[in-house]
């Protein structure tokens, strides 16, 4: 077996228990597991995955293994690895893992390259680091690539930029763009787990406090909705008029971040953009304000600016760093500005990852078994896969739906019938 690099193999037993717990919440993956164990559609395919090393990802790995894939896994974020899960994957499931919670940027890239030493024909990314590294430093892998899949918005943005520049050299499926992914994972998953991260890190009561959500995309909508449910006064800041209007009509206050910063007890970013909380906002932020990020990269809050403004700093709790400014204000940064829901909580609940990862399995099978090779572009998830995942989830939840009658099918597809 390929060697691994994990923190402590002795944590495996605890990891197995937690992976099994998550499995109970993943009925769509369980149904797919039965199907792929019989068909083995990925038999012998070398697959390198770069995902958050969590219990849900471990269950995805189990299903891919049952499908016959020859797997390795590395982390897609230095702070999100659950070391017991890494140990369980290696010790119990025999899947090589390169991931240690808290690894340096240098080790992070060593691990990405270790995963690429596996010589994959398929990649599975959360943030496009494998695809990017193949194109930048491992071009010899390009000719063998059947394709890759991409889990998150930020990765899809990077890949589309590569495709537009004519740089993308193999097909990638944007799993994030499946309805059964972003409508649920980004909205309800990020919504719940971001609030979980804020609360675990600070234990501050949200009721009656002012919380600003920066960015009203799928993640931002979920965070705002759940913060409102906790009794927070929610402000939304945006740069897109349509999204800002939607936030306003959803009942939130909308204003520029500079104004919001002066009154916010919490500022949470979810934009996929850089330095959205910048020095100008930090200069006016309210004393005691908690700064957290749920966007993919740790660049949404300008942490270097905060560090250079600080005259003192301390760590009052795990995942909290308090910066003292010259005028006496204290600003509290959570999880170094990295994904707060993964660093300070456990990431998305298993039940939403169930659908996202079912899309991953079906898209990997699609890349490996499709009749025609796909062009070197960013592809959407085939509608049939999206519908199949929704159908499996509904049936697992015991929900049934109506079907169109022949008369309705005919009516909906004809243009002749109108006002009667
Ligand atoms: N924390 C998680 O577990 C998790 C899960 C899914 C996605 N993500 C990441 O969260 C980020 C957002 O994802 P999404 O699906 O909501 O994206 P999205 O594209 O639907 O929404 C992003 C929003 O941010 C807005 N925005 C951009 N720059 C801004 C600025 N300077 N100020 C205010 N608003 C700004 C955009 O107009 C857009 O409405 C991405 O980085 C994505 O990869 C994180």
Outline of the structure:
This protein is of the alpha/beta class and 420 residues long. It contains 17 helices and 15 strands. Residues 152-154, 182, 186, 190, 214-220, 237-240, 243, 270-273, 276, 294-296, 339, 341, 348 line the site of nicotinamide-adenine-dinucleotide.
Rg for CA atoms: 22 Å
Give the low-confidence spans. Answer: none
Assembly level: single chain
Helix content: 40-55%
Strand order of the largest sheet: 9-8-7-10-11-14-13-12
Number of helices: 17
For the terminal residues, how far apart are their CA atoms?
71 Å
In terms of structural class, how would the helical and strand content be classed? alpha/beta
List bound small molecules. Answer: nicotinamide-adenine-dinucleotide
| Coarse morphology | globular
Average pLDDT works out at 96
Strand % is 15-25%
